[in-house]
Design brief:
This protein is of the alpha/beta class and about 200 residues long. It is about 30% helix and about 30% strand. The protein has six helices and twelve strands. The protein has a seven-stranded mixed beta sheet. Strands 5-6-9 form a three-stranded mixed beta sheet. It has a two-stranded antiparallel ribbon with strand order 7-8. Strand 10 and strand 11 form a beta hairpin. The chain is globular. It starts with 6 loop residues before the first strand and ends with a helix.
Length: about 200
Amino acid sequence: MSHEAPVIGVLALQGDVREHLIALAAADAVARPVRRPEELAEVDGLVIPGGESTTISKLAVLFGLMEPLRARVRAGLPVYGTCAGMILLADKILDPRSGQETVGGIDMIVRRNAFGRQNESFEAALDVDGIAGEPVEGVFIRAPWVESVGAEAEVLAEHEGHIVAVRQGNALATSFHPELTGDHRVHALFVDMVRANRVAGSL
């Protein structure tokens, strides 16, 4: 069983869903969009894409996905959030918008649009722990950063002194958008996390 490609969903409520589906397929996963609780129940891992974090959170509640998503993340479902997805995986947001909820899963405090006030979007070469070879090209689009992390969370990358990639157990989050660059190493790292979790679950 463990040698089969893992099935990884992309939360398809809003944001750059298609690019994540392509990147996951390139990293040897079976990728499918997830919009309903029954689709969530069928995946081995989930990507929460960039987009508008308040909108995604409200749509997740509307589609009946928020509670099952929280439950599965608490139970150890591997999950990867980019940009808005990072905000949704934070246990706490600075200045949340009204009605904004998070899934949680990473003991971190995130500042929304932190980079956005200085420059709306930019690229930066990043050294990411766990990814060998050349630096990862980080594409930041009105991106958040992590103000602080708890003891359980591991910082994987920083940019100009700000935390931009974090991992805690089966949860991974980046401020930047690796799905937009054609470099699939971050997605491959996540696919490896999903595989390892599946093997551990079958032992």
